Each structure stands twice: as structure tokens, then as C-alpha cells.
Fold each of these.
Amino acid sequence: MQKSALMEIVNSFTAEESERFSEFLSSPYFNKNNIVIRLFDIIKKNLPVTEEDLLNKETVWKALYHGKPYNYGTMKNLIHELTQLSVYFIYLEELENTKQVRNVLTVSALSYRNADKALKSKLKQIEKTFTGKSFRDLEYVLSDYYMEMSKIFWTKWMYQKSHQLKRASEKDFLAGSATTVYSFLLYLFKMTNNITVQSSDHNYELDKNLVINLLREFGTEKIERILSSVREYSARDYKVLSVFWDMCRSQLFDPGPEQYYKFKSSLTANAKIFSLQDLEDLLTCLVTTLFGLKESEINKYRERIDIFDIMIANKIFIQRNRILPVHLFILYVWNLFNLNDYEGIEKFIKKYGKYLTEDKRENALRFSEVCLKIGEKNFAEALEILLKIGYDYSAMKIYVKHIKAICYYELNDSASFIYENDSLRNFLKSNMKVNESVKESLKYHYRMISRMFQLRSKFDIAEFKFLRKEVTESTANIDSWLLKKVNELKDS
């Protein structure tokens, strides 16, 4: 039973969901079989089930039927019935948490039943929310919301057409058309981010992707003309679509610092319009756009901190359950480290360390301590702490590898650096999930430090000038550790 679909579902229940499912089963509207109720009561007492022999069918049968001989068919039917009820319960739970889908179904049902007064009351309530100045209180993404509103406007218009003598409302007719287009465009623009990221990570060909080809076929001029029409219809919705379009352009049509800053500017200016979920998604897309730019074009570390600070200002940096994901904590510290902002790291740890989960906190704080030790020039201590760090996600291994090279250089420990450098190829092979550009950045870091060791051992003015030029042109971060150390070589 443990490996069945039923056990997969009930093991996924929270304590609150388990109680609600018990109430669901006890309702005669949904279930009239008392044995099914007793079956779940037995299962619930053993949740979560982790061992095959902890809860087997024969044991359950004895508790249900008291001395009757085991009947495979009856037991199978009971499990099947409870499984179907659990699936239906999950559906109802999801429906309860999806207000707009409920609105569509309600409007459709009231329209079908010709419940005129109830329908008009419900539509008035829905449209009052839709005509607000922003979508900040929306609990889901705008692409879905516009699609559901298009269904509601079309249902309303069809009801008018069928049930009233006067002409059906042109306003509702146009609103149905407009929200359909809004939804379609938003889906296309949003998919650009997902497709470009996943194509890069998995080496898929962009030219084979129909969404990308469709957008390219439209071209920027046609899309700009469509958006101009939107602006004449609704200033609010034009702002929404323009931000998503700026995101799409920054990744597909005009990748580069100029379009990145345009996207960032329009998002910052219109942040209050969006639901928190849409705003979080857009900021993630901004990070994606930034990731595709060259280190020499823009200070990525400063920009990432700016993006995180926008998340903090809009209260989406910490999740609703008051938990800060460890990768965000580490990434914030890592970017401050690369900006030599050790005071900022201390303030961040003090304010946000408490939001890490217990199982992630120790490693995250150790990593932060390593960065602070380097700021204090206690490189040997930093290396000792690194030995104690566990890796909660793959990028941490890259950061640690990066930091080790820094420490060995600062300690003038060429032997340890050579060993670390020799192991780099196997390290990168064993971490296949790490993005190729991140791997290239790490290899570049080691190459530069290797050349710095050589110059430290035997200084050559021509090589020094060549190295300094290469490092200077490779980064827009004036606080770069590499840049600082290369410049120090001349004085040593």
C-alpha cells in the first residue's frame, strides 16, 4: 500500500489538510461509505508512512473487518474508492485557492441557469476589482487573470445577446477582445524568459522553438504598434504589457546594457501595479537578463544587490512563511563580498540570518563568516572554516572554489593553489548542472591567479601590462579583487 497512488497523496497532506480530508470524508454529500472513513482514520494514525511493512493491507483489513477472512477484491475496491476521493479533495482544495477560476465557473453557471439578478451582482463585484488602479492584491499572475477576465467578458456579452432585447454591450465586446490579446501577449513575453534560460541550460536550439519564431516573425515594429493600440484603450494595461515587453526585448531582440536598464527602469517605475507573484517573476527575469550580459559591460554584483533591494522594499525577498531561501541569502552575501562591502555583509546577517531554516542556517552563516574573515585578512582561518561547510546547493561549490584560490594567493601558497588548479577540470566535469558561463568564469579566475603567481615569482613588465589590460577590460566592477591584486603586483 505504501507505494500506491493513495499513499503518495496522503503522505503529501499537511496536518491541516489531513484534518480537512477527514471532514470531507465524513460529509454524506461526498462520501456515504463509513468503511472508507475508518480506512483513512487507520492510515492517518501512521502518517507519514515510510516503510512498506509499517502499514500493509492485511493489517488494515483486520482493523476494519474484525476476524473476517482477507478479501483481496474488497480491499482493492476500498483503496480505489479512497484514492478517487483523495484526488477529488485535492481538486477542491486547488479550486478553493483559485478565486478567478471559481469566478469564471460561477458566472458561466449563473448565465446558463438564467439567474439574472445573481449574475449581475456577481459581475459587478468582479468588474469592480478589475477596474482598480493596480493588481497588487491579486493572488496569481496577470497572464492567467487576463485570460479568465476574457472568458467572463465573453460570457457576459453572450448572455446579453441571448437574453436582452437591446444591442449587446460594445464595451464588453471590446473588453473581451482586449483581455484575450493581453493574455496572449503576456504568455508569449513570459515564455521568452523560460525558453531562453532552459535552452541555454540544456543546449536546445532556439531556432526550433515556435514561440521564439513567432515573436521574431511579429518583430518589434508590429508589437510596438499593437502596444500603441493598447495605450489608447487602457493606460494601466499598457504599462503592464510594456514592462513585460521590455523584458522580452532585453532577452530576445536587443540584449545589452541599454535594454537591461530600460527594463529595470520601467519595472521599478511600475512595481506597485503588479501582484507580488508577478513582481517576483519579473525581478527574476531581470536577473536572467543581467546574467546574459558581459562582466565588462556592467557591474553585475551591484546590479544584483539593487534587484534584491527592490525585492526587500516590496516585501518579497522573504517568503510568506517567513523563510528566506538559502540560495538568496548566500547570493546576497556573495555579491556584497565581490563588492568588498563587509559592513553590508554584517548588517545583512544580523537582519536576515534569523529567517533561514534550521537545517540551512549553519552552513549559510559559516559561508558568511568565511567572507568576513577574508575582509579581516584572516585567510588561514577562512580556509579552516571552508572545510566545515556542507553544500546546500550546487552554486556554493563554485563560490567555495573561487574563495580557495583567493586565500591561497593571499597566503602565497603556490603549492596548494597548483593542486586546486589541477583538480579544476574534474571538479567542473562532476558539476554538470552548473551553467557553462559560470564554469567559464571560474576557469578565467584560476587562469588569472595562475599568471599572477608567475609574475609574483618572476616579474615581467610586458606580461604585467598585458595582464592588467586584460583584467581591466574584463570587468566593470571597480571593487574587483582580481583588479586590485593585479595593480598591487607593480608595487611589490
Amino acid sequence: MYYCLYDLLNEKRTEKGETSQEMYRFFQGKKIKKADIVQLKDTCSIGSVKKFLPAIEEYTGMTELEVYLSLGIIPEEYKKSFFDNITSISQMLVPESKERVTGLSPIFSTQFGTLYNADCLDVLSMLPDESVNVVFADPPFNLSKEYDTGIKDDLGMSEYISWSYKWLGECVRILKPGGSMFIYNLPKWGTYYADFLNKYLTFRSWIGVNMKASLPIAGRLYPAHYALLYYVKGGQAYTFNNQRIPAETCRHCGGELHDYGGYKNKMNPSGVNVSDIWSDIYPVRHKKDKNRPFNELSVKMLDRIISMSSNPGDTVFDPFGGSGTTYVVSELLGRNWIGSELGNCKIITDRFANIQRDRDTLSQVQQREKNILFSEPVRILRKKNGFWLPEDFKK
């Protein structure tokens, strides 16, 4: 199945034994610019191609309906006929065979966790149905970045979506009823993930994680957040531990950035409830804090996710190990964990060998950045500048 029309055209080009330039020349002969074809690489939309559908039909040797069906689209005028004939259609379909991988041995294990140096789909195939409490995934963003050998970050749009739906489907399968799933990616891919997950899980939140120091893109809105999709299996989450964080304040004077009006005296001294906009998660950029040259997730973000959605003794699964943040935080929080990483696992094992550094980071987060209304430095600044503190309202 194709999700992107360009990928369908490219497949037909390959079958014909043509070069890309030969394909572009065919469409140029139909007065269709090369740019009109190239722009199809980055979209699953076909709304703009109706004017040159005849040329697409000629090039692919397919009817208009066949083109639509190849893209997984049933045109509105055919839907009644489709549902009227659904029994006969279902009898024509054959499920894709799935092979269960056996015999994979973990490369590393701890008191709480097990790590496999393998493809996540192979590891997922070994895991029983409804066996984990939390899934967190931070897949490659398909931005053509250089990662370890064996990791592809430059797939065609259809291939990337199809691959994503495979591991997402397996993650749905292994998630326990009431379990929570968090998927971290760019908003573009988040829309496709949500379209898939809405069919199998219950939507809870689209969490916007502020993107620090992003660059503007010409002709588009300024990109300012990553998407963190939050779903649960079934009607409600089996576990939801409310997370509280400090109120946002001015770093110069200590004054609160939000006007709490007449409710200051009712504010919880343990902090404000976490919303679906996370502006306090900062990227791990400094060399002294990083465990690898590539992007790395912060301990603070994984502490929030895992603490919110699980309890000690629960099991967390992360199919894309990266630098191992999910596994280290799970270990320190007393959660069981299962992980897979196709690339260099030595980064992760070395991190566990020096886990005291992450323990110190987590301790700092828990003492200064959660379950308090104002951190101690902010309290001092507010007192100096005459701003209220929670104890001012005590009788």
C-alpha cells in the first residue's frame, strides 16, 4: 500500500526501468512541471493533483479508482458500493503472515531491565499480548540524519509510515488494558500516528513540548513544539499520578508570569498541575551532559512520563533505545523495563556503568523542579522583591 502518490509513481517508474528524469520528461510533455511532481514527495494529499490525474493514469496504466485504492482511499461515491459488497471483499483478502522471532538473547540486563541489540520489530514479536504497562517511543524523525550503521533515517514517505504502523500496531498489542502509550515525534508525523492510534486506543492528549532555539522555515509558521502523543488502552488509564511543577516566574525579578488573580491564597504549595504544554523541558546539548553525539532525551521528561503513568514494579517498553534515557530513569524509579536498540548499545551500557550521574540529575529534578510551587532560588528572589509566598496566606 502507498500513502504518498509520489511513491506510487516512483514504483511504476522502477517497473518501467526509467530514470527519474525520464519520468519528469513524460509529465513535462503533458505540461506538468517537474516541481509539481517533486512536491508530492512530502505529502499524502491528492487534492492538488486532480488537474493532472489523466496524465497519472496514463503513466501508471491504472484507472483513477485504482490510483485512489492504491493510496488506501475509497472515494465518497464508491463507499456505498464498498459496504454493500463488504462480505465478498473480505473473502478475497488474505492476512500478511507474521513470523515470531525466537532465540534472541539480551545484550545487557539489570535488576529491573533487559536490553536487546536488535530490530524493535523482532523484539516486539517475542513479547506476549498485553504484557507491559507503558510504551514510550522516540523513533527516528526521517530527517536524513546520520545515525549508527543499520539505522535508516531517509525513507520514502510511504515506507516510513508503513514501517511506523507496523511497530505501532505491535506496541498496541503488547500494551495492557488501561496502559499508557506516549509517542514523541515531529507534529507532521504525529498526525499520521494519531490517525492510526485513534482506531485502537483512546486519545488523552497531544502534548506540545516546546522546541528550543528552532530556526524559522520560509513560507510556514515558526516551528515551536514537538508532538508527544498520549493514548491509553481502553476507556481510562489504569494509572495516572498527577504531576506538579513550579509556577513559571520571571528569571530577573521572580514575579509569576501568569496572573492568578484572587486565587493566590488557594494555590497548592506543591506546585501547579502539569498541562498539555511543556515549556520546561530543555534539550540535552552540553557535551558534559550528553552520552552520544546525536540528540538525546532529558531525564526530566522521562521522569515526568514514567512517574505519571506507572507505579514501582510496572513494566515500561521503549523500542528505540537511543542513549538509554528511558531505561536509566525506569531503573532509578523502580520500574521494570524492556528495550531494543539497533545501533550502538555500548552507549547505554556505559551509561548504566556510570548511573550515579543520572541519579544525581534525577535527584535534582525531584528536589528542585517538581512538587514545589517555587524553587529555593526563586523564593529568595521573590522575597527580596516583595512578592508573595505560600506561607504568607497561612493563618
Amino acid sequence: MSYEETEFLKRAVDVDARIVFKGDIKVYHKLYSNRLTMPYLLRRARYDGVSEHIMYPKSIKKTLECLKRIMIFFD
């Protein structure tokens, strides 16, 4: 399962936590070459979708609306 960051942010918003963006902070991630392939990205997207459905089963309508906006953006 994935979706840890989304779950964290949802919980923070639910308790009215203050979320701050700091553009000058640098975060380094080690990326392995196998994670830069289309099969990996598709598999990751699938697991994100499964995780979202498990955690928020009624959010499919919201998810589909978001996907439509993303597809229009990349059109």
C-alpha cells in the first residue's frame, strides 16, 4: 500500500493544522533507474488508486474529476 503523504496531509487538514510551504528547502531522494520506467510508474499509479479506494471508498467521484483535470492539462 502507498499513499502515506496523502494520508498525513488529510489528517493534518482534518485537525486544522497549519501547513506551510517553504520553497527554499531542498529534499534529496535517491532514485533508482528502474523507477524511471513506464511499467513502474503505471504500477505505482495503480497502487495509489487501490490505496485511495481502501482508505476513502466514497472518493471515486472526486478522483475521476481530478483525473479529468490532469488529462486536460496534458492534452
Amino acid sequence: MWRAKAIRAAGGWNSRTTVEDMDLSLRAYMAGWAGVYLSDVTVLNEARATGRAARPKTVAPGAHAVRSACVPCCM
């Protein structure tokens, strides 16, 4: 979950990149925002109708490694 102020302070959402979340996280961090990890939060998801819909999205090679190296900035 993001604070609207943090997104605006970071320059907004940039959909022209392939790693929008990492891009925004890094820009928010550089703007002085910090993230917190809440281990006790439960998020309910809608069940997918088919097995095909449940397949993972294709991501750019190395994207997971890059995301893991970044500090999430959301609070």
C-alpha cells in the first residue's frame, strides 16, 4: 500500500518502464520516504477462474534479483 503523498513526491507512476514498482520505490527512497514490512497483515485475493490464468506473468530476466535488492518505500 502506498501513500499518495509518497507517489507524488517521487514524481508519480511511470508506466513507460518494465519495472514500475522498483522504479517508484527507488525514486521514493531517494525523495526521503521509507518503507516498513508488516508480517502480520493478511491480504485476501480473488480466486482465478482457470489454471491458465494462475500462471505467473513473464518478467524480464534478472527482474526478481533487482527487485530483491531494492528497499521498498511505501510508508
